Amino acid sequence: MSGHFILSNISQADLDNARSHGGTWSPLQHGNIGWNANSRAVLSRALNNQDIPNRDGLPPHRYLIFQQAGNPNIEVTKKFLQETRDSWADPNRLRRPTGRGLGLRALNATAAGLWAQNKLHDCLVAQFWRPESATVTIEIYHLGGREMT
Q: What is the mean pLDDT of residues 73-98?
């Protein structure tokens, strides 16, 4: 699995706020890899737009997922994605590294165009709202400044 976006760190308060507006928190991924010199180096290369062989060496992470399916309050989630001022919703923090091997999920055409124009909130809404995607997935490696475990 991979995300549409990568966020290196999210605060507990921002995570709680996102979850109260329809976000779900995945189980831990890559827990068997752990945090070590190799996994940190793979993540660093990926975040710096450098190629990595594949996702297998990435350290533990989780996904913050906003989706329409099973969401009884999709309008609340849409408004949250459009208006949130939480610290994670910042184009300098929410990223789409371009190196090969990371394999981020593709954005729908509308969202991709908005991302290219640096219209972050509009991009999030388009990715969530368009029927061909209906999901925003954010890959997160640190919670409250601590490595995910």
A: 91
